[in-house]
Amino acid sequence: MSDLLGHGAGDSALQQIGDVFHSLRPRAKAVARIKSDEFAVLVDAGQGRAFLEQYAIELHQRLAGALRVDGREFYLNPLIGVSVYPDDGASADELFRRADSALNRGGDSNDAIHFYSARAQTSAPATRAWPT
Question: Fewer CB within 10 Å, N or C, the chain?
């Protein structure tokens, strides 16, 4: 959006996205912008997977709504990857990588929400060291 309408428009869009995250508190304990279009959200998973699924659906619906910038409407196509502590990782970095892996594993799927699953991960093919 910044490329199309300038940095002010991009800032306005980010503010609206921030408002979406803010509206979902207190369920979202923390939100961090990782890259230009990637965010990490910390949610207490103590209420179980159904709670996380419902939260992810609600987050997706709100992020997919119209952003109004400079008199125009823009729509995001948010994709959400979910990983759960401690089942999927012990550190923030590991959890983020696994959530990202869940997204990548989704491929061309029309699904917008992907949960990490260790069973669904494929291991890299073994490499053979050739004698020199």
Answer: C
